[in-house]
Amino acid sequence: MKPKVAFFDFSSCEGCQLQIANLEERIIDLIEVVDVVSFREVMKEHSDDYEIAIVEGSIQRPMDELRLKDIRSKAKILVALGACAHTGCVNKLRNEWPVEDVKKEVYGKANISDNPYFDVFQTKALDEVVEVDACIPGCPIDREEFIRIVTALVAGKKPSIPKYPVCVECKKNENICVFDLGKFCLGPVTIAGCNSACPNFSHECEGCRGYLEHAHMDAQKDVLKKYGLSVKQMLERFNIFNYRKEGY
Amino acid sequence: MSQKVDINLHHITRLEGHGNIVVNADNGKIEKIEWQVSEAPRFFEAFVRGKDYDDLAHITSRICGICSIGHTLASLKATEAALGVEISEQTTFLRKLALHAENMQSHILHVGYLVAPDLFKVGSVFPLINTHTDAVLKIIQLHRLANEMSDLICGRTTHPIGLVVGGFTHVPTLAELKVLKSRLISSLDIAGQVAEILVNNAHMFPNFSRETEYIGLTTNNEYALYDGVIGSTDTGEHPVKDYQSIVNEYVVPHSTAKHSKHKRDSYMVGALARFNLNSDKLTPMAKEIAEMFDLKPISFNPFMNNIAQLVEYVHSVEDSIIIIDALLMRGTKTEEPIKIKLKKGRGIGAVEVPRGILFHDYTIDKKGKCIKANCVIPTNQNHGNIQKDMEAMVPTLLDKPKEEIELNLEMLVRAYDPCISCSTHYLKVKFV
Hints:
Chain A contains ten helices and five strands, in the order E-H-H-E-E-H-E-H-H-E-H-H-H-H-H. Chain A is an alpha/beta fold and 248 residues long. Chain A has two domains: 4-154, NADH:ubiquinone oxidoreductase-like, 20kDa subunit (Rossmann fold); 166-242, no CATH class.
């Protein structure tokens, strides 16, 4: 019996679901090992009978929170797909502002009070609403990692993501350190798994895959000192994809 | 007619984002037709305030996963206009290639994966893998090429890495461009075969027309995508700086996405609008594909937007080959980053992205921080036109079976290829 998989999306750009279409011919292999029972973006059919729910997006409203809890109650395994689901991604940048302020800035004087569509609270990642069993980080996700994690789940194993920083992959790719190019890189404190995509293009890592717990902070402080930068500046940059009111 | 139309479709499928259609009709009398967008609003314009000028493109790219390159380019153009930054010829060439790659990727995804199932009467592309294996593999091949072109130019297929204020962090080598060129040339043949398959099923598109206004960029020397002035089939040309008097955004209670109108109640943007305005500047094979489907300007049939997307796919391939030839002649090099002098200013960037004309408008303070932002999204500009099409189409469908009404209205929405992540992000269809 192939496991039944359903895809869902909340507030996001849907770019992580697009990476599944971007598997190209390998989509055909994917549907040989799993039974896709719901995927609104690409199919009309829908079933509520699924074991694995793969969920993209952040949670912004009571109505979305209820829908996510319903998905959780039906799924044996719930996977957070991409940074919006995993960390809240750039959606959380608005948490720097009061809800009423952002509404006024975007919708002006339009009467949107008492309208449930506009009833937003501060943006939440999925794990602030329900229990999440596995994460596929990144903005967007890395397609190879998606395959690896789905393969592990189908085999009944617990999927894992790297426990080392982007720097490890970047060194392996023999890139010039982007700090030496005068840029501010977050590679030393960011979870690897993207094959250092941004530094490979001489661009700084922006930390989209999230904060590496137990990052080697002393070494990072040395790096910052060497380039005359402060921890405060680093955390400000880190906030773009990983905003936390309480900080790190 | 005694039929009571009472349909409730929740979350239209095979669309980017969520929306609803509400239709109430009894005894041939229509009580309500409403195109609703209920996607959770994301407030980008509010939270980019206070952000540095050089972070804006990589933040606003996240408005949309499908047209992230287009958002990046509109953002960079707005930022550069505000700061008075001039870009090099090489940067312009490479940005045009990036935009073509996205146009190709988005159009083939929509036509091949999301629209084609309607033409073959199936619920998704999955059953077609078994019944029309060869056609599906051809579509995948075209999709893969578009994505690999993005990888080469932008560093990634979604959310481009190398496109920054003033230029590129990384440029492709001539050898890489030569390989890309030969792959683009051979893909034209495959695109022609895909068009042949679709033309045999094009009769499945509903026969529906409604006169409306078409708006898009236009310019004298090329089929406008990266640059131009605002063109309208009703009112002619307008400078980009006047965009607010063209788009006239307004809020309706049933939609978290804003709506737009110009001289009429609504207007349309996207591939069909561009075709209607600029078809004489298409490349030769793109013109042949248009003829194959009997697509001529001005076409008032919204379903022809999907055919215009196919036409543009071919145009983007052919024009990319021309751009690569120019780059091969002049060579590519890693250019020194442009020195940016911070100053207070406002800039507007307009770009044609797969779904139509996109504007980013930023005001930047003397420290280089954004203090005001406005993004006008193609899909928002189309919402009003979708509504008006539905109002014209529903009366012609009332005596049809419920499933057929639903299918026709879903197909209408799909014809516009709405990107609701962009417009805020949410789409459901509900008949009450």
